[in-house]
């Protein structure tokens, strides 16, 4: 290849610019070219048939070695149960028929996740399949993602979690103190073609998992036939966990 | 030369401090022979040659880690064209090398390195035991 | 060569002071080691209030660091000779403050050993990356400038020609560090208290009040220690800067109050309620915030009325009040209240623990230690630190 200095500079400038633009587009990007976006539909009423049931929480905590820290201030949670008042903060469900029903909360795997935008090391990032993943090897524990997440879906290991794991699952690592963790839609199971553990464990089949980019998927059929809400849609994060009313 | 005792005293302290690792080595009976490694639990083909693993297993582990975590691809094709599930506990330990204490720790202790792997990844042998005990043993 | 030798000789009280600082630093360090071992659970931080004293103090001291520009700019851009002897003090204050900022960030990290990941995986869309770049750059700029100008002064020569452009660069850079620090907060969707375009201007205004106020106090202290004349004219000029900045700061805070309270939008109103009246029975910040407000009001009276501002007895009091008021406002209130109520509508509590406070004290100790060493060098080179210009 024979390049003049000028041509070389031109080419390198343009390629740098191109790379920068692609990066920027990815940073601000949403689902513009995504073919897969895993999502979850939560059927609030089905779930409420068993108000005492914690099957999804238990199986998730067991599968991912989520510690049960007794001190609520240091609690770690991937999927948890909360009131509609907390889950849909800013909405008014006081007089609605779901006012008293429990709501399962987890990471929304947003289209445009603020946690990914702010993470200084890309320890959390949006995968090709739309999952907001975590790299616990890289997390520096700055907790910027926790300040950025408007759903409180992220937990920090304020102390060593191991003493609070009763029976550990050797197939999955624990975390070390000083890193942030959250629901990952069971990336380890998805790579084996399996559904998330919570979906499998739910006795009422109240959790529906699937590709929301695929118009023929079960989750899409469910969403087109039922009224649903997402959490704080006004923030522009584009949650991919939908609540069927 | 009133300073002489101070100078020699200081020199002696300096020598004692910089040779401390040698004394500690002799005290704990370290030899140049290196540790005996327990042989893998089940003989099978290997992910890479022994020589490579001796010198560069940490690089391989990093590569596998990045592939599994960042690219979401948990299948690693080894030197012998065998395919492995990338899993430090499930594959490296359980399938190939047996226990952490008999294999990993022997060399790491000998070399005086403390890799951070085990503050998250579990030693299969301890999976049902007390994790607190494991922590304090490290 | 680095002039450090000048700090190695001193009076008995100098050594006593350094020994006290060393003890404070050592205490903080011991507790930091405990935090390293136990985890950040040793602090009062929790899953709802994830940033507290460390990050709030960081924010405050970025302001102190940026404020050096308030003496550098008039001197180098407007050739305002009155500040000739003061600029170096401002630059050294900036170095000490930036160092403290970095230590506060470090103390707040869950995995401090991995800090280099920020450089190994530079992430242009993260404001934290830019904050690290701008802070490190500002530290470097001020270190180079201070060293070059001070060495030249000792040798009785003019600073090298390349120093001037570096100084000019440091001026917008100072503004940038505090702007980027405000951007850390002002771009987060779920934290309504911080989600305001006024945050960066407000940060700059409070910085240009608190930093120069501290500088006045430091000048008076140096004059007393060296038993020389305080630079009355420079101090009066800086006092005017403090006055304007404090007025601007209070004005901007009132703007925030109006929008949040008059609009009545709960998510904007509630953090202010939490700060000033308490929310759902949680009112831990209330006494602090009222102290800050009352002190701010007193300081405005003392600063705006010329008779009080020019009174050499009252001015240091006014400066101290400004510093404490803004320290509470920015170094505690703004960061903690940003987490209240939580995005789920829970009103959490946060009370710093003793280890946390001692670690913060240790970092203050480091800052004061650095500052003392630097100012000692200045005094050693200039036995009469402020002599040589009008008003001395």
Question: Could you please describe the fold and organization of this structure?
Answer:
The complex is a heterotrimer of chains A (245), B (138) and C (392). Chain A is α+β, with helices and mostly antiparallel strands and 245 residues long. Helices cover 28% and strands 13% of the residues of chain A. In chain A, the strands form four sheets. In chain A, strands 8-1-10-9 form a four-stranded mixed beta sheet. The radius of gyration of chain A is 20 Å and the shape is globular. By secondary structure, chain B is mainly alpha-helical. Chain B folds into two domains: 1-30; 43-137, no CATH class. Chain C is globular, with a radius of gyration of 21 Å.
Summary keywords:
heterotrimer, B: 138 residues, mainly alpha, two-stranded antiparallel ribbon, 6 helices, 2 strands, 50% helix, 4% strand, disordered C terminus, C: 392 residues, Formate dehydrogenase/DMSO reductase fold, 14 helices, 70% helix, globular
Summarize the structure.
Chain A is built from 9 helices and 10 strands.
Following the backbone from N to C, one meets helices and strands of chain A in this order, namely: HEHHEHEHEEHEEHHEHEE
Distance between the termini of chain A: 63 Å
Give the DSSP E fraction of chain A (strand runs of 2 or more residues). 5-15%
CATH topology title of the largest domain in chain A: Alpha-Beta Plaits
Helical fraction of chain A: 25-40%
- The counted number of beta strands of chain B is 2
**What's the alpha carbon Rg of chain A, rounded to whole Å?**
20 Å
Number of helical regions of chain A: 9
Biggest β-sheet description of chain B: 2 strands, antiparallel
Q: What ranges of chain B have pLDDT less than 50 throughout 5 or more consecutive residues?
A: 127-138
**Would you identify the regions of chain A where 5 or more consecutive residues have pLDDT less than 50?**
none
Largest protein-protein interface: A-C, 51 and 46 residues
Number of helices of chain B: 6
Number of domains of chain B: 2
How would a crystallographer describe the biggest sheet of chain A? 4 strands, mixed
Shape of chain A: globular
How many DSSP-defined strands of chain A?
A: 10
- Per CATH, the architecture of the largest domain in chain A is 2-Layer Sandwich
């Amino acid at each position: 290849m024979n390049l003049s200095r000028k041509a070389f500079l031109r080419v390198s400038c343009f390629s740098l610019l191109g790379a920068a633009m692609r990066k920027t587009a990815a940073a601000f990007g949403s689902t513009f070219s995504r073919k897969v976006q895993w999502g979850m539909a939560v059927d609030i009423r089905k779930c409420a048939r068993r108000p005492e049931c914690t099957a999804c929480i238990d199986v998730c905590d067991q599968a991912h070695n989520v510690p049960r820290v007794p001190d609520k201030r240091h609690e770690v949670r991937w999927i948890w149960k909360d009131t509609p008042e907390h889950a849909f903060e800013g909405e008014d469900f006081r007089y609605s028929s779901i006012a008293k029903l429990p709501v399962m909360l987890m990471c929304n795997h947003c289209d445009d996740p603020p946690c990914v935008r702010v993470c200084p090391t890309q320890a959390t990032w949006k995968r090709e399949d739309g999952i907001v993943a975590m790299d616990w090897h890289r997390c520096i524990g700055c907790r910027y993602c926790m300040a950025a997440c408007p759903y409180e879906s992220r937990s920090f290991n304020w102390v060593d979690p191991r003493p609070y794991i009763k029976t550990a699952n050797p197939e999955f690592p624990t975390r070390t103190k000083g890193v942030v963790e959250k629901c990952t839609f069971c990336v380890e199971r998805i790579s084996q073609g399996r559904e998330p553990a919570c979906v499998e464990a739910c006795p009422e089949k109240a959790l529906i998992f699937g590709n929301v980019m695929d118009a023929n998927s079960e989750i899409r059929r469910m969403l087109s036939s039922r009224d649903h809400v997402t959490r704080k849609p006004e923030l522009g994060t584009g949650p991919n966990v939908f609540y069927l009313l | 030369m009133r300073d002489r005792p101070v100078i020699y005293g200081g020199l002696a302290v300096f020598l004692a401090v910089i040779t401390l690792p040698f004394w500690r080595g002799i005290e704990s009976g370290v030899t140049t022979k290196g540790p005996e490694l327990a042989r893998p639990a089940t003989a099978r083909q290997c992910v890479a040659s022994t020589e490579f693993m001796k010198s560069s297993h940490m690089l391989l582990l990093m590569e596998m880690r990045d592939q599994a975590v960042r690219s979401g691809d948990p299948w690693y094709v080894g030197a012998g064209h065998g395919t492995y599930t990338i899993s430090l506990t499930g594959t490296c330990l359980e399938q190939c090398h047996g226990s952490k204490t008999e294999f990993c720790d022997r060399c790491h202790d000998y070399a005086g390195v403390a890799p951070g792997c085990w503050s998250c990844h579990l030693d299969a042998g301890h999976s049902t035991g007390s994790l607190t005990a494991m922590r304090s043993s490290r | 060569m680095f002039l450090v030798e000048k700090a190695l000789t001193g009076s008995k009280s100098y050594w006593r002071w350094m020994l006290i600082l060393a003890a404070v630093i050592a205490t903080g360090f011991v507790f930091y080691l405990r935090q390293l071992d136990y985890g950040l659970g040793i602090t009062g931080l929790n899953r709802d209030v994830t940033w507290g004293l460390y990050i709030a103090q960081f924010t405050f001291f970025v302001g102190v660091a940026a404020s050096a520009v308030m003496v550098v700019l008039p001197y180098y851009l407007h050739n305002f000779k009155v500040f000739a002897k003061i600029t170096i003090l401002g630059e050294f204050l900036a170095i000490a403050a930036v160092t403290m900022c970095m230590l506060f960030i470090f103390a707040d990290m869950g995995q401090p050993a991995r800090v280099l990941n920020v450089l190994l995986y530079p992430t242009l869309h993260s404001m934290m990356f830019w904050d690290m770049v701008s802070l490190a750059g500002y530290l470097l700029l001020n270190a180079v400038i201070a060293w070059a100008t001070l060495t030249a002064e000792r040798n009785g020569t003019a600073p090298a020609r390349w120093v001037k452009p570096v100084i000019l660069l440091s001026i917008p850079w100072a503004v940038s560090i505090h702007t980027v620090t405000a951007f850390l907060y002002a771009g987060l969707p779920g934290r309504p208290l911080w989600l305001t375009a006024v945050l960066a201007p407000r940060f700059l205004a409070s910085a240009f009040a608190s930093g120069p106020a501290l500088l006045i106090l430091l000048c008076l202290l140096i004059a007393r220690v060296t038993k020389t004349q305080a630079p009355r004219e420079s101090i009066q000029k800086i006092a005017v800067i403090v006055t304007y900045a404090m007025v601007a700061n209070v004005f901007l805070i009132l703007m925030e109050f109006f929008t949040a309270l008059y609009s009545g939008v709960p998510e904007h109103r509630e953090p202010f309620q939490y700060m000033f009246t308490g929310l759902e029975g949680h009112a831990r910040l209330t006494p602090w915030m009222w102290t800050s407000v009352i002190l701010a009001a007193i300081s405005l009276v003392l600063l705006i009325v010329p008779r009080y501002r020019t009174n050499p007895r009252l001015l240091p009091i006014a400066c101290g009040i400004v510093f404490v008021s803004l320290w509470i406002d920015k170094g505690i209130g703004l960061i903690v209240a940003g987490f209240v109520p939580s995005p789920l509508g829970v009103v959490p509590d946060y009370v710093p623990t003793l280890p946390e406070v001692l670690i913060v004290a240790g970092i203050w100790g480091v800052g004061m230690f650095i500052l003392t060493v630097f100012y000692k060098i200045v005094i050693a080179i200039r036995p009469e630190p402020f002599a040589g210009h009008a008003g001395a």
